[in-house]
Design a protein that fits this description.
By secondary structure, the protein is mostly beta strands. It has two domains: 144 residues, 7 Propeller (Methylamine Dehydrogenase, Chain H), CATH 2.130.10; 320 residues, 7 Propeller (Methylamine Dehydrogenase, Chain H), CATH 2.130.10.10. 1% of the residues lie in helices and 45% in strands. It contains one helix and 44 strands. The strands form twelve sheets. A four-stranded antiparallel beta sheet has the order 3-4-5-6, with no helix packed on it. A four-stranded antiparallel beta sheet has the order 7-8-9-10, with no helix packed on it. The chain has a four-stranded antiparallel beta sheet with strand order 11-12-13-14, with no helix packed on it. The longest helix has 4 residues. The two termini are 26 Å apart.
């Protein structure tokens, strides 16, 4: 339980709470729980390891009364021989029959350093430790030696890091059982197989053999095709079979190579929002249509965002000219700006819509605006609970909760109120968030400016944050821990 101790649900449906008031738990923040073969319950806390024996007696293990490497106990794993393995700060210890029988630290072993975030034991009895900043370490218990796998070693097949820690967009799996998540970075794209842990980098060069394109956005169509918005590199499309096509200004109907956002419509066509060329539509048959200030009522050729809503209407967020909505059936346009509506700012950076049909707009300096189906506006700024009025990204989860990414953290809107989330309380690698998206399970994915990716499970107790980073940049190593397994 997050800050409230631990809870036990008996077979007859009765709850029992263990906390500092009614037990010998040292603190109410419990990070992990293990039940051993004797029926003893072990609790990991940041002030030591607590054990509730089958006889109802408590014992607390700490650096004061044992040789544990640290009082911060972050993870536990039970071996087949009955040994309890304990992640203690940046070290690992083993407890048998109530005694610390082994203790490994950076000083007396080759553990790489960094707080141990996860522990697991494989079928051969090897102990695996996932660290925050030092990669993954594996103990061969018969030899007592640790092998370290991180971005500087070559012994981790398929575990290539992100091409860059500046991640602009994330596309999680689209259905239960799907395996691949995609990341758009400022040095191309990367895909990760969540089951095998295998990475694949996709260079997507601006020109053949030239610098890598910045991937601004990735979206998926109903057929399984993917579209990539490339800043300076045009539009890239990969079909379900893995074949690629590139569309460039001058060699296709794309009006500009500076593509800020992309979206599929229900027919499988692709809408592209460009910075300088207006909007472009690639039909399923391969025909291009361009909408700009010369041939349509779109108020600007500089577009930041595009959304296809449930009714098939196309929403565009512009750079300084408000919002434009295109009705593809009636072939009519409607424009919302600060002069004719309650839109607080004309610089729109992101758009999303909820299951109730409400459309949400993220502005560059005036917070979030919501427009419901009846035409009513609602504005939200830092006074409403947002961490910043600069909104870089918006997303909606399966429950209809709205999530934000800002330079000062995240916030989610549920039950009519905003709740801010910051690195200090969540474990995010930084508050400088670039993009947010939600998968079908309710997991929220955040990309950051220069600090990789944070994967947030709001249903966890406490909510679980995992990180994915590039070893060549600021965080030093690759760290990947998902679904309680080290990949």
């Amino acid at each position: 339980m997050d800050g409230r101790g631990a809870a036990y649900l008996s077979k007859d449906g009765q709850w029992r709470i263990f906390n500092t008031s009614g037990s010998e738990l040292p603190v109410n923040d419990v990070l992990d729980i293990v039940v051993d073969s004797q029926g003893a319950v072990w609790f990991a806390t940041y002030q030591g390891l607590a054990c509730l024996g089958s006889d109802g007696k408590w014992q607390v293990y700490s650096t004061e009364n044992t040789t544990l490497p640290a009082d911060l106990i972050s993870a536990l794993a039970l071996g087949e021989d009955g040994g309890l393995w304990v992640a203690a700060g940046s070290g690992v210890a083993c407890i048998k029959e109530g005694q610390v029988v082994k203790s490994y630290t950076e000083t007396n072993s080759t553990l790489p350093g960094g707080v141990i975030k996860s522990l697991d034991i494989d079928g051969s009895g090897r102990v695996w430790a996932g660290t925050w900043g030092g990669g993954v370490a594996c103990l061969n218990p018969s030899e007592g030696t640790w092998a370290v796998y991180n971005g500087k070693t070559s012994e981790m097949p398929g575990k290539t890091a992100l091409p860059s820690n500046t991640v602009n967009s994330i596309l999680p799996p689209d259905a239960d059982g799907a395996e691949t998540v995609w990341f758009g970075t400022d040095k191309g794209a990367a895909s990760l197989n969540l089951q095998s842990g295998a990475w694949k980098n996709h260079t997507l060069a601006v020109q053949n053999g030239g610098e890598l394109a910045q991937v601004r956005q990735i979206c998926r169509g109903a057929s399984g095709s993917l579209a990539f918005a490339l800043d300076g590199g045009g539009l890239a499309v990969m079909d379900k079979a893995g074949s690629w096509k590139r569309y460039r200004e001058g060699s296709s109907g794309l009006p500009s190579d500076a593509v800020a956002d992309v979206a599929f419509d229900g027919a499988g066509g692709i809408w592209a929002a460009t910075m300088g060329g207006g909007a472009a539509y690639l039909s399923p048959s391969g025909k291009w249509s361009v909408y700009n200030t010369d041939n349509s009522e779109i108020p600007s050729n500089y577009l930041n965002a595009v959304l296809v809503d449930a009714e098939g209407k196309i929403w565009f967020g512009t750079w300084g000219a408000g919002v434009a909505v295109y009705d593809t059936v009636a072939e009519t346009w409607q424009v919302y700006n600060t002069a004719n509506s309650s839109l607080p700012l004309d610089d729109i950076r992101c758009i999303t819509s909820g299951p109730d049909g409400k459309v949400w707009f993220g502005t560059w300096g005036a917070g979030v605006a919501g427009l419901d189906t009846a035409g009513n506006w609602r504005l939200y700024q830092t006074g409403s609970g947002l961490p910043s009025n600069i909104i870089r990204s918006l997303a909606v989860d399966p429950a209809g909760t709205i999530w934000t990414a800002t330079p000062a953290g995240s916030a989610y809107f549920s039950g009519g109120a905003w709740k801010a989330l910051h690195a200090g309380e969540t474990g995010f690698p930084t508050d400088n968030l670039q993009h947010v998206t939600c998968d079908r399970s309710g997991t929220v994915w955040f990309s950051t400016s220069e600090s990789g990716v944070a994967v947030y499970n709001p249903q966890g107790l406490p909510p679980v944050v995992q990180k994915i980073t590039d070893p060549g940049q600021k965080l030093g190593e690759i760290i990947l821990y998902m679904n309680n397994k080290i990949l």
